[in-house]
Amino acid sequence: MTALKNYEVTEARFIGGQHRKVGDPVQMTERAAKYYVAPYGTGLKAVSPVAATVADKPVEKQPAKTKPAVDAKD
């Protein structure tokens, strides 16, 4: 299976059967995007993956609270 890649529209036009505005994000295979990316065509540019920021990292799970030990009274 071919993975989808992220692209950004650089020229308002029909892409994938829908009219796209400049700046719209588009996901498509590299093979499908070939005709919209230079040197074969115009209208898309590849978006580089963004490194994870501190806010994007998963929050570590806090340890569960334990109840204090109860003395057994006889």
Molecular structure report:
The protein has 74 residues and is mainly beta. It has a domain at 4-46. It is built from one helix and five strands. The strands form two sheets. The protein has a three-stranded antiparallel beta sheet with strand order 4-1-5. Strands 2-3 form a two-stranded antiparallel sheet. The longest helix has 4 residues, at 30-33. The chain is rod-shaped, with a radius of gyration of 25 Å.
SSE blueprint:
Elements: E1 4-9, E2 13-15, E3 18-20, E4 25-29, H1 30-33, E5 44-46
Antiparallel strand pairs: 1-4, 1-5, 2-3
Q: Major sheet, described briefly?
A: 3 strands, antiparallel
Low-confidence stretches: none
Order of helices and strands: EEEEHE
Helix % is under 10%
| Biggest sheet, spatial arrangement of strands | 4-1-5
Number of strands: 5
Distance between the termini: 68 Å
Give the C-alpha Rg: 25 Å
SS summary, helix count:
1
In round numbers, the mean pLDDT is 81
Structural class: mainly beta
The portion of residues forming beta strands comes to 25-35%
Which term fits the overall shape? rod-shaped
